[in-house]
Amino acid sequence: MAPAEFFIRLQHGITGGFVPPSPSAIHTITRSEDSPAELVVQSARKADGMGSLSEAMPDLKRIAVDPHEALIDELESILKALPVESPRGSEDIYGFDICILYGSKSLQWNNAGPSGCGGGTSETRATEEDKKKFKRAIDIIDELVSKEA
Which phi and psi angles does 114 have, rounded to 5°? Predict the structure, then answer.
């Protein structure tokens, strides 16, 4: 059963260096005890030629939780098994230029630091299996974001 409350944030564009990363998309999915039967999905994408993501108008929709409980459970299960970079924000160990932040009562997980990645080399390495699992986590979030209200 999916957690009664959780928060998911997926950001495209986390690698930087001297210049901070410039996100091209941010998607958030939340479930709260105030509205336990629905997921609130917010999505902002930077259009071609747009200066920054902050100029994008976010889409907001609500979708039913019940048809997606298995996906949410799968996502949390995947993230519980995945490593994160060390030190935090040092390197995009999965190589997708994507950050996932997930929070529930049973799990707090995120890859990349608050300012993205680009501060060196991680002591932790992702295996090919880890990268496949991370890709599956991205696919689950993308599937939830693309659902019709």
Answer: -60, -25
